[in-house]
């Protein structure tokens, strides 16, 4: 079994184990199929939480890394004074993002790179914030991605994570069940909880708040405390 063929498990020094179901090749293949229709199908329903996340960036945030930037659907939301670097595994999604940047003349978008969020090439503390919108439930290795975002964000900076995280009980559990087929379309791992991400070292959870679809989508705000 190669590392690409195996869904990873991370535990030990880097926090509790998080098992995921999607592998890197699955992600690239799945999003090659979704890229042509992604914005039409998944744009509006997930839009409110994207805007909430960008609005949650502290005033004066100068440079942001968006991991899993996809088609770049969130890029027009950033303030013009905030420089943004977007990365994603899927060349097909990135082609859309590059076209959007050109068509909308988004001068604050510094670069769009094909890159694995679990292996960022950026130096330590290169960004004031990192965003992961609807990504942590898709990446093959969420703990590693959190560790990489923590590494490239300066101490005191932010990591903002948007997504649907598993709830143990209550209305969110019912909504999650109802939307399970929708999540499956995107290969979502429905086992990750906010608590699992918050238990990883090097970050402090500042807030876990509803960000869309009646609280089904959450915004997790972390401060980097390395
Ligand atoms: C559900 S889409 C979200 C796209 C966008 N952030 C949004 O708000 O619509 C998930 C994205 O994560 C990307 N992705 C999945 N695993 C990745 C990884 N390991 N590194 C970088 N991007 C990844 C996929 O290619 C896809 O574009």
UniProtKB/TrEMBL annotation:
Alphabetic keyword roster: Methyltransferase, Transferase
Domain Methyltransferase type residues, every copy: 65-160
Any GO BP annotation: methylation
Gene Ontology molecular function, alphabetical: S-adenosylmethionine-dependent methyltransferase activity
PANTHER family xrefs: METHYLTRANSFERASE, METHYLTRANSFERASE DOMAIN-CONTAINING PROTEIN
Protein's name in the database: Phosphatidylethanolamine N-methyltransferase /phosphatidyl-N-methylethanolamine N-methyltransferase
Annotated source species: Oharaeibacter diazotrophicus
């Amino acid at each position: 079994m190669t590392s690409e063929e195996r869904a990873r498990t991370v535990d030990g020094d880097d926090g509790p184990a998080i098992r995921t179901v999607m592998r890197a090749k699955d992600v690239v293949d799945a999003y090659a199929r979704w890229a042509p229709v992604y914005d039409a199908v998944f744009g509006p329903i997930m839009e409110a939480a994207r805007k909430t996340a960008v609005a949650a960036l502290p005033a004066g945030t100068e440079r942001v890394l968006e991991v899993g930037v996809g088609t770049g659907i969130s890029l027009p939301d950033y303030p013009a004074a905030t420089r943004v670097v977007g990365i994603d595994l899927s060349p097909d999604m990135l082609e859309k993002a590059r076209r959007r940047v050109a068509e909308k003349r988004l001068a604050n978008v510094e670069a769009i790179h094909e890159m694995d969020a679990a292996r960022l090439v950026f130096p330590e503390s290169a960004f004031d914030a990192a965003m992961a919108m609807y990504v942590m439930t898709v990446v093959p290795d969420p703990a590693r991605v959190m560790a990489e975002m923590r590494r490239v964000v300066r101490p005191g900076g932010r990591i903002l994570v948007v997504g649907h995280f598993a709830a143990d009980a209550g209305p969110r559990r019912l909504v999650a069940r109802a939307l399970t087929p929708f999540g499956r379309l995107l290969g979502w791992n429905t086992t990750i909880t906010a608590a699992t991400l918050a238990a990883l070292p090097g970050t402090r959870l500042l807030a876990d708040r509803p960000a869309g679809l009646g609280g089904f989508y959450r915004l997790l705000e972390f401060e980097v405390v390395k």
